[in-house]
Write a structure and sequence with these properties.
Number of domains: 1
Structural class: alpha/beta
CATH topology: TIM Barrel
Strand content: 15-25%
Largest sheet: 7 strands, parallel
Radius of gyration: 17 Å
Strand order of the largest sheet: 1-2-3-4-7-8-11
GO biological process, one term: methylation
Distance between the termini: 11 Å
Domain Hcy-binding: 1-285
Cofactor: Zn(2+)
Helix content: 40-55%
Pfam family, one: S-methyl_trans
Shape: globular
CATH class: Alpha Beta
Keywords: Metal-binding, Methyltransferase, Transferase, Zinc
Number of strands: 11
CATH architecture: Alpha-Beta Barrel
C-alpha cells in the first residue's frame, strides 16, 4: 500500500506560507480547497492513503491562535472530510484510505520538540492532551488514525491509552535517529508498546532519514509481528530556529525494494517528499 508524501511540502509548492505555529492546519480554515487539491495530487500520483492536515491541530494550539472550541472541532472534522473529498475526485476502483493524522505533543509547541520528546509531562497529562482530538477525529470517520512522528515511547503509550475504546484502528510510527527513538530509547522497547494491541494495525517509522528505514522495519516486524509502516522524509534536516530544511534529498524510490524485503508494507514519504516522488515509489511497486 502506498502512502502519500509531505502534505505541507505540496502546499508550500502551491504557494502557501506555513511558517506560523499551526502549520498546514491553518489552511483548514483559510484555504480548505487547497488542502483538497494537495491530497488529490498525491492520490493521482499513485497514493492509496492520504494523511490529513491535522498533525499540528489541537485544542490548545487552536486556542492560542484565537480559535474557540466549537470551531476547532469543526476544523478537526474538516481535515477528514477534505481528504475524503479528494479521494472521491479520483477515478478508479482501487480502494483508497483516509488516515487522520495525530502528531505528538511537541508538534503543538512548534519549536522542533517532536524531534526531542521528553516534555516534562506525565503520562496522564499526555493522555488528557491527546484524547479530546482523538475523539473528534475518530467520530469523523477516517479509515485509520496515524499516530505519527512520535519521538518517545512514553508518549506512544499515552497515545495508545487515549485511543482505547474509540473504535478506530491506528498505526503507530516513531521518528528515529541512529537506531533509537529521538528521546534515546531502544527501538525494540518502543515498538513493543504496540505488541498485542488489536487496535494497532501497523508499526514503524516516519519523518526520519531514509537510511534508517530498513533496520527499523526489520525490528518492528520482529518485535510486534505486525505489518510495518515506513514513510521517511527526504533526508534533509529541519532547522527549528530558522524554520527551514537544510541539506540534500536522499529519498529514492529504488530503496523501496530493500524496505519491502525487511517487512515494510505501507510505504510512502514525509516532509520534502512530493507527488512526483510518490509517483516513482508507486511505479516501483507496480501500483499505478
Amino acid at each position: 500500500m502506498v502512502l502519500d508524501g509531505g502534505l505541507a511540502t505540496e502546499l508550500e509548492a502551491r504557494g502557501h506560507d506555513l511558517s506560523d505555529a499551526l502549520w498546514s492546519a491553518r489552511l483548514l480554515a483559510d484555504a480548505p480547497d487547497e488542502i483538497v487539491a494537495a491530497h488529490e495530487a498525491f492520490y493521482r500520483a499513485g497514493a492509496d492513503v492520504a494523511i490529513t492536515a491535522s498533525y499540528q491541530a489541537s485544542f490548545p494550539g487552536f486556542a492560542a491562535a484565537g480559535i474557540g472550541r466549537a470551531e476547532a472541532e469543526t476544523l478537526l472534522r474538516r481535515s477528514v472530510e477534505l481528504a475524503a473529498r479528494a479521494r472521491d475526485r479520483v477515478p478508479g476502483t482501487r480502494r483508497r484510505w483516509v488516515a487522520a493524522s495525530v502528531g505528538p505533543y511537541g508538534a503543538m509547541l512548534a519549536d522542533g520538540s517532536e524531534y526531542r520528546g521528553r516534555y516534562g509531562l506525565s503520562r496522564r497529562e499526555l493522555v488528557a492532551f491527546h484524547r479530546p482530538r482523538l475523539e473528534v477525529l475518530a467520530a469523523a470517520g477516517p479509515d485509520v488514525v496515524a499516530l505519527e512522528t512520535i519521538p518517545d515511547a512514553d508518549e506512544a503509550e499515552a497515545m495508545l491509552d487515549a485511543l482505547a475504546g474509540l473504535g478506530v484502528p491506528a498505526w503507530l510510527s516513531y521518528t528515529v535517529e541512529s537506531g533509537r527513538t529521538r528521546a534515546g530509547q531502544p527501538l525494540a522497547d518502543a515498538f513493543s508498546v504496540a505488541a498485542g494491541r488489536d487496535d494497532v494495525l501497523a508499526v514503524g517509522v516516519n519523518c526520519c532519514a531514509p537510511g534508517e528505514v530498513a533496520e527499523a522495519a526489520a525490528l518492528a516486524r520482529e518485535v510486534t509481528g505486525k505489518p510495518v509502516v515506513a514513510y521517511p522524509n527526504s533526508g534533509e534536516s529541519w532547522d527549528a530556529r530558522r524554520r527551514t530544511w537544510i541539506g540534500r534529498s536522499r529519498f529514492a524510490a529504488a530503496d523501496v525494494a530493500r524496505w519491502r524485503a525487511e517487512g515494510a508494507e505501507l510505504l510512502g514519504g514525509c516532509c520534502r517528499v512530493g507527488p512526483a516522488d510518490i509517483g516513482a515509489l508507486a511505479h516501483s511497486l507496480r501500483l499505478p
